[in-house]
Amino acid sequence: MARKPLDYEELNENVKKVRYAVRGELYLRASELQKEGKKIIFTNVGNPHALGQKPLTFGRQVVALCQAPFLLDDPHVGLMFPADAIARAKHYLAMTPGGLGAYSDSRGIPGIRKEVADFIHKRDGYPTDPELIYLTDGASKGVMQILNTIIRNERDGILVPVPQYPLYSASIALYGGSLVPYYLEEEANWSLDFVNIRQTVAEARSKGITVRAMVIINPGNPTGQCLSEANIKEVLQFCYYENLVLLADEVYQQNIFQDERPFMSSRKVMFDMGPPLSRELQLVSFHTVSKGNWGECGQRGGYFEMTNLPPKTVDEIYKVASISLSPNVPGQIFMGVMINPPKPGDVSYPKFTAESKYVHESLRRRARMMTDGFNSCRNVVCNFTEGAMYSFPQIRLPPRAIEAAKRAGKAPDVFYCLKLLEATGISTVPGSGFGQKEGVFHLRTTILPAEEDFPAIMSSFKKFNDSFMEQYEGYSRM
Ligand code: DCS
Question: The domain 94-339: what is its CATH number?
Answer without folding.
Answer: 3.40.640.10
